[in-house]
Amino acid sequence: HGSMGEVWDEEMSSSMLGSRLRKVVQNYQAMNKYGVENTGPGGVASRPKLSGPELLCHLKSQVQVLTLTPDLQPFASLSWASQLPDKAVTSELGPYKSCAVVSSAGSLRNSGLGKEIDSHDAVLRFNAAPTSGYEKDVGSKTTIRLINSQVMASDDHRFLSSSLYSEGALVGWDPAPFSANLSQWYNRTDYPIFAQYQRYRRLHPLQPFYILHPRFEWQLWQQIQDNMAEPIQKNPPSSGLLGTVLMMSLCEVVHVYEFLPSRRKTELCHYYQRFYDAACTLGAYHPLLYEKNLVKRINQGTDRDIFTYGRVTLPGFSTLNC
Ligand code: C5P
User: Fold this and answer.
1) Is 8 domain-assigned?
2) What is the CATH classification number for the domain harbouring 264?
3) What is the chain's Cα-based Rg?
């Protein structure tokens, strides 16, 4: 005992990064690809720091998990609108009692967390993260897979044909300009998400497949910025935080694995690839550092859970008395 090392410090700032990563983050903080406006001076100057429970209530009231439905313009006027699910994801999936969110971090390797992860009522995974061959560490159950538009569009992930994507429901997302309406976004997505969506739906018509409303991404981004003392990257939150908040709106309790790194913390980017880069854990394009500060603040589990299991415990929004 007494050997518990450091876990994620919720006051992490870009000044604590190595010089290479610090420059990359500072470049993204200065760049504004999506035309983010009116970000304000940041949390410290504008209001006192919120406690974890206060922050949870802010998230519940300020962030709405929305998905595209056929009634929304411009989709309502397009012939393929009927391929979109009739209802939003939050009225069709769940509610679940317990949920696991499995980050794809390299620190899941040799974690032995597979059984624990599979014991949840629903399991969320990300992008091209496999279970086959990694069951002992990440489990085998997939209830929802959250995929970004880069994965949806790229040929080498074989998105249309790979069995990797065939289990559970899919939820896709693509960054929209900050102030764009759906029509403006439709005409300038980062990747061709809608063409791929239509192809995938034709090939796999029975699998539920939702697309996040970009308003959700920017509402969540705003909450991160409002609660940080420095300007964050003006890019949407990572899939990891989007999926965590998605599950908080579907589940009574959410366990997030290796988003806040355990004692197995490593520069190995993903548990399923031999590629090393600290940016995967600390962020470059995404405001991942600040996402982790926020998750640390709302964690209801212990530091030992983080250290030993890489496990964070979050309440579902439905259980909060705000
Ligand atoms: O890389 P990818 O986006 O597919 O990983 C899924 C999510 O897991 C990321 O968006 C990020 O939130 C989280 N992650 C992490 N640390 C890593 C790798 C992924 O926190 N080393």
Assistant:
1) no
2) 3.90.1480.20
3) 19
237 lines ligand 1 (CB under 6 A): no
CA of 45 to the centre of ligand 1 (A): 30
Q: Which atom of ligand 1 is nearest to the CA of 238?
A: 10
Tokens representing residue 261 in the block: 């790194």
The answer to whether the peptide bond before residue 74 is cis (omega within 30 degrees of 0) is yes
- pLDDT (tens digit per residue) in 100-149: 999 999 999 999 999 999 999 999 999 999 999 999 999 999 999 999 99
Domain presence at residue 306: yes
Pocket test for ligand 1, best of 7, 21, 104 (most atoms within 8 A of CB): 104
- Specify the DSSP class assigned to residue 295: H
Q: Alpha-carbon distance 63 to 84, whole Å?
A: 22
Q: 282 C-alpha to center of ligand 1: Å? A: 9
> Is the distance from CB of 29 to CB of 14 less than 8 angstroms?
yes
Is residue 234 a part of any domain in this protein? yes
Rounded distance between C-alpha atoms, residue 127 and residue 147, angstroms: 4
Structural element, H or E, at residue 238: none
Answer whether residue 96 is part of any domain.
yes
Instruction: Measure 141 CA to ligand 1 centroid, in angstroms.
Output: 18
Tell me which residue of 211, 201, 221, 82 sits closest to 148, measured CA to CA: 211
pLDDT in tens, 253-283: 999 999 999 999 999 999 999 999 999 999 9
Cβ proximity of 286 and 221 under 8 Å: no
**Residue-level pLDDT at 282:** 96
Total number of domains in the chain = 1
Type of residue at 190: D
* Rounded-to-integer distance, Cα 308 and Cα 262, Å: 6
Q: Is the CB of 239 under 6 A from ligand 1?
A: yes
The answer to whether the CB of 238 is under 6 A from ligand 1 is: yes
| Domain range enclosing 49 | 14-319
